[in-house]
Amino acid sequence: MVRVLFLHPDLGIGGAERLVVDAALALQSRGHVVSFLTNHHDESHCFEETRNGTIAVKTVGDWLPRSIFGKFRAFCAYLRMIYAAFYTVLVVSQNEKIDAIFCDQISLGIPVLRLAKNSPKILFYCHFPDQLQTKPGGFLKSIYRAPLNFLEEKTTGQADRVLVNSKFTRRVFKSTFRSLSLDPDVLYPSLNTKFFDTPPQDDEVSCKIPSKSFIFLSINRYERKKNLSLAIDTFRDIAATVSATEFDKMHLILAGGYDTRVSENVEHFQELQSLAQRYKILDKVTFLRSPKDNTKLWLLNTAHVLLYTPENEHFGIVPLEGMYMAKPVIAVNSGGPMETIVDESTGFLCQPTPGDFRKPMLKLFRDPKLIESMGQMGRKRVQQKFSFEAFTSSLNQIIEELLQDPK
Fold first, then answer.
1. At 225, phi and psi to the nearest 5?
2. Same domain, 153 and 259
3. Region 333-340 average pLDDT
4. Are residues 175 and 32 part of one domain?
5. Same domain, residue pair 87 and 106
6. Which of 378, 312, 314, 313 is nearest to 341 (CA)?
7. From CA 22, how far away is CA 28, in angstroms rounded?
8. Which residues neighbour 114 within 8 Å (Cβ) at sequence distance 6 or greater?
9. What is the model's pTM?
10. Residues in a beta bridge with 383
C-alpha cells in the first residue's frame, strides 16, 4: 500500500481536474491511500467524487488573493501553490507518512516539497507549459513573465518523473523547456466508464430541449480559447444553407464550466449569447452553465453529434466521452484530437472554419446509418485504447517504478 498526496491548485470541473480525480480513483482501486490538498474546492463546482467523500480533500491558502487588481494572476497562482507546498512539508508530512506526491499544473512548489519528511517521490504531470497558456502582452508583461518562465522550467526539472497528456504536449514540452534533458512519458487521460454506463435520467434540462430535435452538442469551458463561437458561426452558416424545414429540426447545445469568480467566464458567456441573438438563432441554441454530472450524462446520451472546437488542445477528454457514448465527434484538426479521433472513422477532423465544420455536420444530419457506424467505431476505440483499466495499470506501474528508483 502506497500513500499518495495529490497537490492541485483548484479542484473545479475542467479536463485537468477530471484527469487528477481519475488518477486518484485509479490508485485507490489498487489499494493505495490517496488524498487531495488544494487551494480551492467549491462543493457546488466540483466532481462528485471530491464532494461525497470518496476522496479526502483538504483546502489550504484559499484566503490568498487570486489576482491583484485583476492582474498578476500567474504570480498569485504560484504563490498559492507554494503556500500549499509549505503546508505539505510543515504539517502534512509531519503527521502522516507520504510515499509520493502527484503534483500537476504548477511546478514552483516542487523545490519546497523536496523538504518533506521521509523524502517522498515527486511526480509532476504537465498538462501544458504554463508560460504558453498566458495571453500575449507587451514589454512590461514580458519582463513580468521572464522570471516566472525561468522558474517554471527549472522547477519542472526537479521532479523525479514528468508525465504529459499526449504526444503533442510532449513535443511542445521539449521545444519549450530546452535546458531540460528529460524526456517525459505520455500517460493519456482516460474515462471512468462506470459513470458513463449509468442509465441517464431526465432532469430540469431535458424539458428545455425541443422534443425530437437533432442535437449538436458542445461541452467546453466558457473561455475564449475554446473557440465556442465557431459552433455558433457554423450553426448560422447552416441556417443560411439548408431549407427552413431542415433547420427547424436542428438544435445546438453549448454546455460548459462556468465560474462566477472568473471574469472571462462571465464575459464570454454573455458574448456568445449576444452572438446568437445577433444571428437571430438564439431560440435554436441552449446555453448551460456548469451542468451537473447527471445532466452531462443525459446530454451525451441524447445528443446525436459532438462538436469540439478548441485549436491545439493539449489532449481533450470530451472527445473520448463522446466516442464512448457512441457519438461521432467533429473536431479541429490539431493537438490532442488528432491522437484520439480517427478521421472519417470515429468522426471528422476539420479546419476551424464554419465551412469546414458545416460539411460533416450536414452529412451526419442526413445519414443516420453513418452516425450509428461511426458511433460504434468510436466506442470501440475508447475501449481498446483509452480504457480506465489500461490507465490504472499504467499509472500504478509508474508509481511502483518511482518508489523503487534509488535516486
1. -65, -15
2. no
3. 94
4. yes
5. yes
6. 378
7. 10
8. 122, 158
9. 0.80
10. none
- b/e burial code for range 266-305 (CB count within 10 A of at least 16 → b): eebbebbeebbeebebeebbbbbebbeebbbbbbbebbbb
Q: Are 196 and 300 in contact (CB under 8 A)?
A: yes
Q: Which three cell numbers stand for residue 351?
A: 479546419
CB 127 within 8 A of CB 105: yes
Element (H, E) at 295: helix 293-302
| Integer Cα distance of 388 and 393 in angstroms | 9
Q: How confident is the model at residue 358 (pLDDT cuts 50, 70, 90)?
A: very high
The answer on 159 and 287 residing in a single domain is no
For residues 162 and 138, membership in a common domain is answered with yes
Written as nine digits, the cell of 47 is: 466532481
Strand partners, 307: 218, 330
Q: 156 lies in which domain range?
A: 3-190+388-404
Contact 15, 220 (CB under 8 A): no
Do 225 and 178 share a structural domain?
no
The band of 45, judged by pLDDT with boundaries at 50, 70 and 90, is confident
Q: Which helix (H) or strand (E) holds 271?
A: helix 263-278
Compute the residue count for the chain: 407
CB 305 within 8 A of CB 325: no
Q: Which CATH number goes with the domain that contains 346?
A: 3.40.50.2000
Q: Which amino acid is at 197?
A: D
Q: 91-122 pLDDT, tens per residue?
A: 999 999 999 999 999 999 999 999 999 999 99
DSSP conformation class of 115: T
Within a 10 A sphere around the Cβ of 65, how many other Cβ atoms? 12
Q: How many domains does the chain have?
A: 2
